[in-house]
Amino acid sequence: MHYVGLACLIVAMVATWLLTPLTIRLARWLGVVDQPGERKVHRAPVPRIGGVAVFGGFLAGLLFAAWATDNLPQPGQVDVYWGGLALAATAVLLVGLADDLWGLAFYWKFAGQILAAVFVWFCGFSIEVLSHPLGGALELGVLSLPLTVLWIVAITNAVNLIDGLDGLATGIALITAGAVAVIAFIRAELGVTAASVALAGSLLGFLRYNFNPARIFLGDSGSMFLGFVLAVTAVRGSQKGPTAVALLVPLLVLGLPLLDTSVAVARRLYRLGHRGARTDGALRYVFANLREVFLPDRGHIHHRLLEIGLSHRRAVVVLYGLGSLFALTAFALVLLKSVWIAMVLLAVLGTLLAVFYLALYLRIRRLQATGQRCAGHGAEPFAATRSPSQAR
Questions:
Q1: Phi, psi of 130 (to 5 degrees)
Q2: Residue 357 burial class via C-beta count within 10 angstroms: exposed 0-12, middle 13-18, buried 19 and up
């Protein structure tokens, strides 16, 4: 199995490495490029359908694993989930590709994601039990479907939102896929292991072209596809763990995208509430303008790192380190299998994150107080707002 896994990784990596230049040419021929702009960090048109190449490498890795494991004593352990996952992931990729090509309203993208999530739930990728660190578990029953769909849609969009710098979403997804692969292998979830290894290999092949300065972007096709596959595999790969930590593992391996998305949603809701406070019906104003929560802006953590003066590459590397910290914490919980150690690790992680965000906030406030700005990034202060037409 170790040799099969390594070979699967190499096959997926080489396939994506070969497909990406062809995808770049195709994107330029079709005119599917991301143009420079006020809220962009690149200065030349860049192709934006990299998800096609990543998807191709992912499928190549899965097909190789399916062929190789036919010689194993229990191939059913590996291929039982592949069909449903591949079909649903293809659908999500096509929805994202349609957005890259023609632009889709957010509710159409949500509809596609929800349908794909429902489909994989019927295929067996479902959250059946909720556990907590203090012990005990809750059988979800009829709530399994809506909670599974909520999880998958949330992660799909979280990865999409963090895709704001060259190589950022690709690297974070690579770290996450690697963590999921190791955890799933330890728990004998060989199907999830194969999918995660294939995805990791594909991302390795793509990162060469996507790291700063990027020759191609993931696009919505790539970021939505990555988020979908990671959401599904993270849940399935953690189901056989001790109930005390089973819920924490998928939350931690996807911790950075979840954290950034949570902060973004809270920031946008606060902004709406602040505006609504000037009217007679603040709550009514928030609900009437709730669509603004789904409009992108330049307030994400990667934008803030640029604002304090970090270079593009350094900002990405810092976030790679933060993503690795989440993944290592999840891996430690799996190995140690202790509720109390889990609580200590979570407390340490929470403290480090609080210090990081506080230092970032204080640095930006100091720059604002002295009237300094980091030239070329165009990032706005924490307190600044934009109209919906200007939002990213």
A1: -110, 125
A2: middle
Domain boundaries, the chain: 2-253, 262-369
Tokens 């040419």 map to which residue? 25
Nearest-angstrom CA–CA distance, 330 and 247: 10
In the chain, pLDDT over 90 holds for what percent of residues? 37
Q: Which residues contact 384 (CB under 8 A, 6 or more apart)?
A: none
Sign of CA dihedral 8, 13, 16, 21: negative
Structure tokens at 110: 């949500």
pLDDT above 50 for 243: no
| Interstrand relation of 129-131 and 137-139 (parallel, antiparallel or unpaired) | antiparallel
Q: Which helix (H) or strand (E) holds 261?
A: helix 255-276
Token pair of 141, please? 């029953």
At residue 239, the pLDDT reads 55
The DSSP result for 23-40, as a single string, is HHHHHHHHT-EEPP-TT-
Whole-number Å distance between alpha carbons of 310 and 214: 18
Give the DSSP H/E element, type plus range, for residue 164.
Answer: none
CA distances from 244 to 2, 135, 147, 241, 339 (A): 29, 5, 19, 8, 6
Angle, helix 255-276 to helix 312-336, in steps of 10 degrees: 120
Kindly state the tokens that stand for 377.
């990034």
Least confident of 9-18, 52-61, 151-160, 331-340: 331-340
Mind listing the pLDDT tens digit for each residue in 247-292?
Answer: 677 888 888 999 998 888 888 888 887 777 777 667 777 777 777 7
Does the structure show a pLDDT above 50 at 79? no
pLDDT at 14 over 50: yes
> What span, in angstroms and rounded, lies between the C-alpha atoms of 261 and 57?
28
Tokens of 84: 């449903």
Tokens of 380: 């706005």
Asked if pLDDT for residue 60 goes beyond 80, the answer is yes
Side-chain-side CA neighbours of residue 60 (13 Å): 23
Distance CA 313, CA 144 (A): 41
Residues 6+ apart with CB under 8 A from 208: 17, 20
- In degrees, rounded to 5, the angle at the alpha carbon of residue 192 between the alpha carbons of residues 186 and 197 is 85
Q: What are phi and psi of 265, to 5 degrees?
A: -65, -45
For residues 64 and 8, what is the distance between their CA atoms, to the nearest angstrom? 6
